[in-house]
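WARN no homologs supplied; continuing
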Amino acid sequence: MKNKRREFIRNLGISGIAALSSPTVFSRFKSMSSLRVLVLGGTNFLGPAIVKSLLRGGHQVTLFNRGITNRHLFPNLKKIKGDREKGISGYSNLGNPNEDWDVVIDVWPQNPQLVKDAVHILKKRTTHYVFISSIAVYANYVKIGMDESSPRRKGTNYEPGHYNLNKVLCEKVVEEEFPDNFTILRPGAIVGDRDSGPFGTYVLNRLMNRTEILAPNANDPVQFIDAKDIGRFVNTCVAHSKKGYYNLVGPATKMGYKEMIVGAKETLKSPVKILWMDAEFLITEMKLEPFMQVPFWIPVASDPEPGFHQISNENAIKAGLTFTDYRETVKTSYESFKEKRFILEEGSELVFGISAKRENEIIAKWKGRS
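OK structure emitted
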């Protein structure tokens, strides 16, 4: 299971470091209520949540992207068209080299060269660089309660598809070029509006569109975070110039797998029948792989890396991280799935869960045992 989970993070990109810097406030921003913010990206999944929060915070937001994804969003904002994958030339439309921003927010790259190019163009045109990274940067998840000082994965060269290492390399670019003025955010699994991951597309979809489902009779810990929570926290970091590293994981209080499933069923008022099956039956007899084929479930008692869903968010909470009510997250996630407000990455539908046919076979064997 550990290797499969590592392979998943390595191939798809769902993410020893210096001691954590204490959050501080840059004197330049102390008296400023409205900042000029450049968002690189901003219209796919996490981006809109960040942009909406910044706008509610009263900031002047400019978007820099290709102008292809969700072009209808934010019609009143200034938009600068550019393609980061074209290298330095992709920034030609930024135009006036004297135009600057108080903060740049870099939402998505896993290729350090893209970050290097952005920094090359923007280093002298901004004071504060915010980079969205991932908990995938950590070397392992053996320890329970890992904080931001935990060792990162080692490596120096970009490797296509190696999401976890590449995110580390991206972080290093930001650290080196903005040594005193960076914020690096490390979310866990992100759910909510526009999420194309397994929470809406598999977990909630099955709750609402099957008559009965299988589930392990287990309450091992789970962690995830609503995109809106990240958006609010980005606004907090921007408004108060928080710097350093922050693990962004939720929910607000500790939650187990069974609680997650039951809470979602009750919130959606789903009539589905849940067949709670022994973990041993699912893993040993049915050969199901936790986490991959049963999304979000990691049986910590037998897992060599039990800390994966038990990462500390204490630092972020102290800095102002707040959480959306789980019931609201469930409703938003399912509405987003029903209305297809997400972009499915190529091949991602083949990663999580099992087919309806396979689930029916397992259910039949379980009932036969009973």
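Residues 10-31 have pLDDT under 50 and may be disordered.
OK
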